[in-house]
Specification:
Calcium-transporting ATPase, cytoplasmic transduction domain A, 9-stranded mixed sheet, Rossmann fold, elongated, Calcium-transporting ATPase, transmembrane domain, 5 domains
Length: 961
């Protein structure tokens, strides 16, 4: 068969695409004969999909196009190499300069390539869709979707192509362009567009009408490929590192190298520079010793360029992927998984966590705890077994036919499990009845109903199930267990309300079952279109318990001790929400509920200004819809908070999680279709808690702090090396007209330190202790960006400057007083001492870098870091081997050291430990805070006597610190 065998002509397909894109319902129904007409034109079976024939699918793809778009290829490894090469392409034939370039390029390229490759891999996860072909469901890649395919959609999916809605319940999508545009898709509005996010609905299917470049998907994916960030987004660590590197290159390395070159050139032509043998190199306008290309100017030029490469901390780019790599296994073992790296980068600065009750502050593993038939309670199956057959039959129908196992809520599954195992209900009742109409339970409807016809007698019945208060309002009578109908007078109605309230006060979710006969007879029953919603007979009340997660109170306390406020929103009513919040520790017994608890409807009714005033004090939002949760998150962000939302992607929290700075989803293991939950969690959230327990949230906070602190440790260590190298370079050139470290030594220093030290600090396993967490609290300032402290804190600058000054002193003492103090003979011996002492100072400084804040001992927790000690030992051994076996060949600049001289080098290096200990007693103002009255102040560390206890002192600007 050729292409002509497909009946759709080019003009007909254009009409279909135009109708779908313009949302023209009138032309869809009149010209194209509705959805069924489009399906017939595209040769699509609505129920079974297109034929699962590869040849016909290929013809469709050839005729209508492939569902793929032309996108720019991701940045590869070679372009990553070419970019820094363009910045520093300096032609020089010296082998050492070439080696410096290779080191620089490798550090920059790997630092850029690893995050980019990881991000591309994460974007491919979950990028498969379920389609219906040949009556069977198949999972295929998004690029394999063709026009006419029937695609199954679930919460968390992005619509893969333009098309029309076929069937499903409560399908809601958010526009791919973002914002608040959430649309309900139905038979009257069946249009779906690529890039839209499915935020609600189940059992939904769509028919594809446009793919690839002809769909909106192309534009949406191009926008996402550019990785756009909102102006309000918190800057990632990678971006902040890039700014730091650029600042050091522009403001420090290049100016110092230029000044040093000018100074050496002036000194050379004024005759003040000397060669290795001590002879003057230039005098009276003539070269007096050697040639210009053998002079100190050219040697300085090579060393200056190499020093610039070392001083620019390109290796900082390596610390992020290395730290993430070594932390990944520990995080998964701790039941954490990061699907978006920006999640852990923002988590250390979160000021507020909004947690949904269901599945977050509770385990979402429901079980039936109370059962009321009529006005009497029964907590075991014996009561039900003695009930009348008519009552049992009605309850069987109400539970089995009006409760879904596959797509139902956890409450539905708990009721089904209880009914089967405890009441011995026969689920085969489904085969004895025909469902005529079904009203779906969703976030708007708090009850569901089903209209059924019994096969045996053709009688038609309506069953309702839902929130107990709503069902009770629809009832005018009630059944007792004997099957007798009793009128529901005001007294009995009040009793039932009291029963319902008692269940809620016991933190039970109370649902009710009701029933009524509709009509008898085939004809009238078949014509019934609506479900009767009044005059029902109450069947039973069921109290479902949602157990709280273990250690929940301690988890809330840990978050608040770390400076993170925990708020709860829930769809439960006010009394249940208050009770659960008190049990979780979110509400204290002394809190005024009138100010800290409110309903979603009340919060929504306030003006923007009133919401901004109340949201800080509000701890619980009850009876909240997904829109209320989203509004709360937006209000918190406008108020200046950095917000994390901890919820369930299948529980109406998707929009709030997408809006939050950090989305934390509960990837609960062993519950329902975990593959679907896992895929939607990765798409919507930044962090997935694998065990679904809120008690893991403090671990997430500690893990993110640990990763961030490891990066800060390496920054502190690296900047000490960079600044010390630049300072030694500049001071030596200006004061002595020479550089004590030659090109080979500087390159070796950069190679060994940047490689082994970055590994040693990346594998650091010391958890952030309570004092460190206190230092990492978000800053109490009003702006969102102001709440993120600088990447280099004042405490880090204190530690860095202390070590830099000491290392400068060591080099200057050895440079000018080595002979008089230590009896050193010759420049080569002096330079060997300087090189080894300076190198070992960096190694010993790795111990100092392990502590950022108030920890004075460099050995605290060292027994847990065997990997760190091994890497430090390897560094020392490599350094000794390098000095003894390689550099001695350069006898003009380097000689082997004796045992006493090595002891001197280790002695100079070891002194850096007490120096660090003393420096940490220097009081340092932390970043600015702001009190409730808007006054800015600083927190200063001081030591209080007696006991030498570390205390904090508040200091306002302008006062003596």
């Amino acid at each position: 068969m050729d292409v002509k065998s497909i009946k759709v002509k080019h003009i007909e397909h254009k009409k279909i695409m135009k109708v779908v894109k313009e949302k023209d319902v009138e032309r869809l129904n009149k010209q194209l004969k509705g959805i069924k007409g489009v399906a017939e034109t595209l040769e699509t079976d609505i129920n079974n999909g297109i034929l699962d024939d590869e040849k016909k699918i290929a013809r469709r793809r050839k005729r209508f196009g492939s569902n793929a778009y032309k996108k720019p290829p991701p940045e590869g490894f070679l372009p990553s190499i070419w970019r820094p090469l363009q910045e520093f392409a300096i032609l020089n034939n010296l082998v050492n300069i070439l080696a410096a370039l290779i080191l620089f390029i490798a550090a920059s390229a790997v630092g850029r390539y690893i995050p980019s490759a990881r991000k591309s891999k994460l974007m491919m996860n979950g990028n498969k869709f379920e389609v219906l072909r040949g009556g069977r469901r198949r999972k295929i890649s998004i690029s394999e979707i063709v026009v006419g395919d029937v695609v199954c959609l679930k919460i968390g999916d992005k619509v893969p192509a333009d098309g029309l809605f076929l069937k499903g319940h409560n399908l809601q999508v958010e526009d791919g362009e973002g914002g608040d545009n959430v649309h309900v898709v139905s038979e009257t509005n069946p249009f779906l567009f690529s890039g839209s996010q499915v935020v609600d609905g189940y059992g939904c299917q769509m028919m594809v009408t446009s793919v690839g470049m002809k769909a909106k998907w192309c534009k949406t994916m191009r926008e996402h490929s550019r990785d756009r960030k909102s102006e309000e987004r918190i800057a990632t660590v990678e971006k902040r590192l890039n700014r730091l590197i650029a600042s050091i290159r522009k403001n420090l390395a290049l100016p110092i190298a230029l000044i040093g070159f000018v100074v050496v050139t002036i000194r050379y032509f004024t005759g003040t520079t000397k060669g290795i043998d001590g002879n003057q190199e230039f005098s009276d306008g003539h070269i007096t010793h050697g040639g210009f290309f053998d002079s100190s100017v050219l040697k300085f030029l090579a060393a200056a360029f190499t020093t610039i490469v070392v001083a620019i901390p390109e290796s900082l780019r390596l610390c992020v992927p290395l730290t993430i790599y070594y932390s990944k296994k520990r995080m998964v073992a701790g039941m954490e998984m990061v699907s978006d790296l920006s999640g852990w980068e923002t988590m250390p600065f979160v000021t507020t966590i909004c947690a949904d009750k269901t599945g977050t502050l509770s385990m979402n593993q429901m079980k039936v705890d109370k059962f009321w038939a009529g006005r009497y309670s029964s907590e075991n199956e014996a009561y039900f077994l003695n009930a009348s057959n008519s009552f049992k039959k009605l309850l069987e129908e109400g539970i089995a036919l009006n409760t879904s196992v596959r797509n139902g809520t956890p409450t539905d599954k708990a009721v089904i499990s209880w009914a089967v195992h405890e009441l011995d209900i026969d689920m085969e009742v489904r085969s004895r009845c025909t469902v005529l109409k079904y009203v779906v339970f969703d976030s708007e409807n708090i009850q569901s109903g089903v209209l059924i016809k019994r096969v045996a007698d053709n009688t038609v019945h309506v069953h309702w199930k839902g929130e107990a208060e709503a069902i009770l309002a629809m009832c005018s009578s009630y059944y007792d267990s004997s099957g007798t109908t009793n009128e529901l007078v005001d007294t009995q109605r009040a009793e039932f309300r009291q029963i319902i309230q008692g269940m809620k006060e016991s933190s039970l979710h109370c649902i009710a079952f009701a029933h009524n006969n509709v009509v008898t007879g085939d004809d009238q029953g078949g014509q019934q279109e609506t479900l009767k919603e009044d005059g029902l007979v109450l069947l039973a009340l069921v109290g479902v318990k949602d157990p709280r997660g273990p250690e929940l109170n301690e988890a809330v306390k840990d978050c608040r001790n770390a400076g993170v406020d925990v708020k709860m929103f829930t769809s439960d009513d006010l009394s249940s929400a208050i009770d659960i919040a008190r049990q979780c520790g979110i509400l204290g017994p002394d809190r005024d509920n009138n100010t800290v608890v409110m309903k979603g409807e009340e919060f929504r009714s306030y003006s923007q200004r009133e919401r901004m005033e109340k949201v800080d004090n509000m701890e619980v939002m009850a009876s909240s819809s997904p829109d209320d949760k989203l509004l709360m998150v937006k209000t918190l962000k406008k108020q200046g908070h950095i917000v994390a939302v901890c919820g369930n992607t299948t529980n109406g929290d998707a929009l709030a999680m997408l809006e939050a700075d950090v989305g934390i989803s509960m990837g609960i293991q062993g519950r329902g279709n975990t593959d679907d939950v896992h895929v939607s969690s990765e798409k919507i959230s930044d962090i997935v808690i694998l065990d679904g327990n809120f008690a893991t949230v403090p671990k997430v906070l500690r893990s993110s702090l640990g990763i961030y602190n490891n990066i800060q440790r390496f920054i502190q260590f690296q900047l000490t090396l960079n600044l010390a190298t630049l300072a030694v370079f500049f001071i030596s050139v200006v004061s002595a007209g020479e550089i004590p470290l030659n090109t080979t030594q500087v390159l070796w220093l950069n190679l060994v330190i940047n490689t082994l030290a970055s590994l040693a600090l990346a594998v650091e396993q010391m958890p952030p202790d309570k004092e460190l967490i206190r230092f990492r609290r978000p800053q109490q300032l009003k702006g969102r960006r102001e709440k993120v402290p600088p990447l280099i804190s004042n405490t880090m600058w204190r530690n860095i400057l202390g070590q830099v000054l000491y290392q400068i002193a060591v080099v200057l003492v050895l440079l000018f007083q080595a002979k008089s103090f230590f009896g050193v003979q010759g420049i080569a011996e002096r330079n060997s001492l300087i090189f080894n002492a300076f190198m070992l100072c960096q190694v010993f400084n790795e111990f100092n870098a392990r502590s950022l804040g108030g920890i004075k001992s460099v050995f605290k927790g060292i027994h847990r870091d065997i990997s760190f000690l091994i890497l430090v030992a390897i560094t020392i051994c490599v350094q000794i081997a390098f000095g003894e076996l390689f550099l001695y060949n350069d006898s003009d600049y380097f000689v082997r050291l004796g045992g006493w001289q090595w002891c001197m080098c280790f002695g100079f290096s070891g002194i850096s430990w007490p120096i660090d200990w003393g420096v940490k007693y220097v009081p340092v103002p932390e970043e600015p805070h702001m009190d409730e009255e808007g006054r800015v102040f600083y927190v200063v560390e001081t030591r209080a006597q007696p006991g030498n206890v570390l205390v904090e002192r508040r200091v306002e600007p302008g006062n003596n610190r």
